[in-house]
Amino acid sequence: MYYKIVYIVLLYITLLLPGSLQAQKPSKAAALCEKAKTAINAHDFNKAKNLLMQARVKDPQFPDTYILLGDLYNFTLKSDSAEACYNRAIDLIGNPDPLLYYIAATEGAKCGHYETALKNYETFMQRGLQYTDVLTDAQKGMANCRFGIEAMKNPVPFQLQNLGGSINSEWDESLAAMTADNSRLVFTVKRPKDSKTVCAFCLNEEDLYYCDQKDGQWLTRTPFASPIKTGYNEGAQTISPDGVYLLYTMCDADFGMGSCDLYWSKKIGDKWSRPRNFGAPVNTNAWESQPSMAADGRTIYFVSNRPGGYGGMDIWKTTMTSEGAFTAPENLGSTINTPGDDAAPFIHSDGRTLYFASNGRVGMGGYDLYYATLQPDGSWSEPKNMGYPINTPADEINIFIDASGTVAYMASDKDGGFGGLDLYSFELAESLRPNPVTYIKGVVRDAENGLPLTADIEMVDLATRQVLTHTTSDAQTGAFLACIHTGSNVMLNVSNPNYPFYSENFQIEKSYTELEPYIKDIVLQRADVGTTVVLKNIFFDFNESTLKAESFEELDRLADYLQHNKVNIEIGGHTDNQGSDEYNDKLSQSRAKAVYDYLVAKGVSADRMEYRGYGKRKPIADNATEEGRAANRRTEFRIMGR
């Protein structure tokens, strides 16, 4: 859009300006304006401004002076002054070429003067239909003005808080991303180049930094060291919600595949692995950048101008099928992407809410921030503008929202900062919030020796059987962080091939104000004779022994475990102390048999299993409380032999 308006301005200067003044009297300023026009065409803006200031003194009523001043301010990105000069010229001419109304409207819209800009657009549309090249842009400009007028009448709550000197500096800080527990912030810093900067003609270099939070305070920021840091530009990054993967962009590297490529690195202990290029089919000789990883640990959204999209830059997604292996990218489609540029995707930890920037939609002008929701059928809802003053006539190009959905982060160069772009936070209006997410955090250990273990950790929606979260505990420390989605019946599954799996169940309906993280170490017991594993995601209706569908995910995992491990088991059913012994024995026996029958149907040999109902005779908790009784109502399996 900027380049188009520059072209229109040049067209106006060279072709239309001489004929724009009808029956104009000779002016003492005309010769100075001709010299200024030559200087503008030569990009000698200081000389042009001096000449035009002289011309205005000689003849304050000469319209050409104001048109050329408007062009000068236009080229130097001073839209407020440009609009004022163009409007002054319109007043002096009375009936100018209609294109001048379009140019004045475009500059007015850039600085938020929507009502004046709308009037100029409307006049242009009435008189300038011969300018077919810009009619579509004028119509969009009118729509933006109408949107801006209404948005400014209905602002959303928005109060920026600078993140402080531990994070911000006199350089540009931008593109914040954070782990789900808010313990680590990663961001891009643009700093002056140094002797190690590879780009000989660059004035700046972009590097990745991180900052850890302790006791609610941000510690001093630290640049990523080698092998992440190079002499090239690294930026436009994200960190996975579990803190395991760093995904980022490197541009113009000798070993890259295109202008900008995506790279990934994995955290092991306190070190990061050697970065690897995503490779084909994700990276191409086109521009790939701005990755965002979902909490499922597999789905990655990014931006590319590769062929096959809907506009200049589009949002695409790929799936990491195994570490370092990616599916062919899929365009998010016309609901998200436009003929303009759509960029800076951020998928919230809820896995459903996508925030992104676009200049191809009706909004405040330039790039605005929008959000859309992934529907159960895989489609996207119609994107919604995040509103004013989050969006302004300037470009808003990135936003990050914490797991709770309450706090957002963005970069701004507003007055009062540390210099250039700074990172800020603000409380997000309730109408713009995603589904809240909490997390479980701890260490996976061996029950016998206490040593840390690496294990796959998944959160699965038991209704849809969709994997919501996937992570792996650290190979050196056993540490893990896994997101827990709210509003669903969710199974936690922790698995290591040398141990029986471990499961938990979460049904969190609380609002974001009540969410608390779960801090819990996971202890895996070896598959020794006598080991008992409680199946915490087996469900029956009250007084029934028919398995509910939500049980199938856990039972399928148990069947898979038994098919890959030659152990014999007893399936035990248990009840609380409510009801008679006879009733509880019968119910627990029926429920244990239901599990047995399901596993046989899944191909597990009946000879390797037996089942038994224990009724209320083996409680594991106090039956005096509802929580205790719920724990006692359980299904478990015990290893009887190998």
Distance between the termini: 71 Å
The shape is: elongated
Q: Nearest-angstrom radius of gyration? A: 32 Å
CATH hierarchy, class of the largest domain: Mainly Beta
CATH fold-level name of the largest domain: Neuraminidase
Helices, by number, come to 11
How confident overall, as mean pLDDT? 92
What percent of the residues sit in helical stretches (DSSP H or I)?
Answer: 10-25%
As residue ranges, the low-confidence spans are: 18-23
Instruction: Note the main sheet.
Output: 5 strands, antiparallel
Task: Give the number of DSSP strands.
Answer: 35
Please state the second-level CATH architecture of the largest domain: 6 Propeller
CATH superfamily of the largest domain: TolB, C-terminal domain
Structural class: alpha+beta
Strand content: 25-35%
Description:
This protein folds into four domains: 2-153, Serine Threonine Protein Phosphatase 5, Tetratricopeptide repeat; 161-432, TolB, C-terminal domain (Neuraminidase); 436-525, Immunoglobulin-like, CATH 2.60.40.1120; 527-642, 60s Ribosomal Protein L30, Chain: A. Helix content is 24%, strand content 30%. The protein contains eleven helices and 35 strands. Strands 2, 3, 4, 5 and 6 form a five-stranded antiparallel sheet that branches. Strands 7, 8, 9, 10 and 11 form a five-stranded antiparallel sheet that branches. Helix 1 (2-16) runs antiparallel to helix 6 (99-110) and helix 3 runs antiparallel to helix 4.
Short key terms for the protein model shown above:
Immunoglobulin-like, alpha+beta, five-stranded antiparallel beta sheet, Neuraminidase, 642 residues, Serine Threonine Protein Phosphatase 5, Tetratricopeptide repeat, 4 domains, elongated, 11 helices
